[in-house]
User: Which sequence fits this backbone?
């Protein structure tokens, strides 16, 4: 989907990038896609754009780009594990049980249980109402995401980087949702820029149920995608000339892909398709609004093919197959650029950007430096998680063959 303007840009174009969420799979897709786009376009540097907007998993990528980390360097660090040791991403960061939350809620249980017992016996309240009262003792999230803040703070503390929105050479907006009001919290904008970037990433990616709400200055924040899928209007309001949008999650067109009916995959497949359809329909409404409200801005949306079974069948929270999935996203994005070249060339040319047909035509190009990515030095927990993922994949394959 694109938006074409009638005029031409006479001065240096103002270019923004908006990245939606999608769990670890979404971040992996965005890294692969950005690598393909970066090498195929001349006249654009993804570490020197005018504005970056990140939501949920997209906030990781946006914060890294704003700090001068190229898509290729992110691929080496996050996908191949070949970068500087400090920059290497360990999936175990996201899978540490929220012990503090468990303990805090457990401490509430005796008093709540006594109150529930009194309601049923003395107060003669329905049992269902008493059990509902006990709900306050349940943890608000299964895993702690505190390591996102601490580890990213260390990554952004290196020379040439910063964990302070106000010290960046560009604009960075990471959007979370205020849990108590349901309103968007645009960290990085004036009045919201005193929060550390790493803390804003933690808040923007705090998926309810999986991670507890993140407390910042006395308020609680959760995943930014609860309000909008992409929040691209944050950059459009600044009057940019070209907006590039990446959205990793799309509903799957099973009938056009030779895949059996989605319902045959059971509850996980039904929920996945439902979630993808809901967030994508909301984004489509947003895109149509952007076309009407910002007619002088060219908008280019990049997302997977709706018939791409490879990405649909992958676990949204899987990290073990990161190399294969990133390579797939890279190749599919190159194919998309080739198929849309005639449409995109004049649009990008207005902003001094040229599609390198030589690079796009080179079939020998690949994302990863070797057929198999270098194995990361993960923690013991990280290795255990990978083992569990492998076992679940094998079980799923066995069930499909049964």
Assistant:
């Amino acid at each position: 989907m694109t938006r074409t303007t009638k005029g031409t840009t006479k001065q240096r174009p103002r270019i923004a990038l908006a990245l939606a969420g999608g769990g670890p799979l979404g971040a992996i897709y965005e890294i692969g896609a950005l690598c393909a786009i970066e090498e195929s376009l001349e006249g654009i540097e993804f570490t020197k754009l005018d504005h970056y907007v990140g939501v949920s998993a997209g906030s990781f990528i946006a914060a890294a780009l704003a700090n001068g980390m190229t898509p290729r360097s992110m691929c080496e660090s996050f996908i191949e594990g070949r970068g500087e040791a400090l920059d290497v991403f360990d999936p175990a960061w996201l899978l540490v049980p929220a012990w503090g939350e468990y303990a805090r809620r457990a401490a509430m249980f005796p008093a709540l249980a006594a109150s529930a017992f009194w309601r049923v016996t003395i107060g003669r309240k329905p049992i269902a109402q008493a059990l509902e009262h006990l709900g306050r003792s349940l943890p608000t999230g299964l895993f702690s995401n505190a390591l996102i803040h601490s580890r990213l703070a260390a990554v952004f503390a290196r020379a040439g980087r910063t964990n302070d929105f106000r010290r960046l050479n560009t604009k960075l907006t990471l959007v979370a949702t205020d849990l108590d009001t349901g309103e968007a919290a645009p960290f990085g904008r004036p009045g919201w820029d005193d929060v550390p970037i790493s803390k804003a990433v933690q808040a923007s990616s705090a998926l309810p149920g999986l991670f507890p709400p993140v407390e910042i200055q006395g308020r609680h924040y959760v995943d930014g995608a609860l309000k909008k899928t992409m929040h691209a209007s944050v950059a459009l309001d600044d009057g940019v000339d070209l907006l590039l949008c990446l959205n990793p999650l799309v509903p799957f067109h099973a009938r056009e892909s030779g895949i059996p009916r989605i319902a045959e995959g059971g509850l996980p497949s039904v929920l996945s398709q439902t979630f993808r359809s809901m967030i994508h329909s909301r984004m489509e409404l947003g895109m149509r609004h952007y076309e009407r409200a910002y007619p002088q801005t060219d908008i280019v949306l990049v997302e997977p093919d709706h018939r791409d079974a490879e990405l649909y069948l992958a676990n949204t929270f899987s990290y073990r197959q990161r190399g294969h999935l990133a390579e797939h996203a890279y190749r599919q994005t190159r194919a998309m650029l080739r198929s849309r070249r005639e449409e995109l060339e004049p649009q990008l040319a207005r902003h001094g950007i040229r599609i390198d047909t030589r690079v796009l035509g080179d079939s020998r190009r690949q994302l990863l430096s070797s057929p198999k990515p270098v194995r990361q030095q993960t923690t013991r927990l990280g290795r255990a998680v990978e083992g569990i993922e492998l076992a679940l994949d094998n079980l799923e394959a066995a069930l499909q063959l049964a």
About this structure: The chain has 14 helices and twelve strands. The longest strand covers residues 171-178.
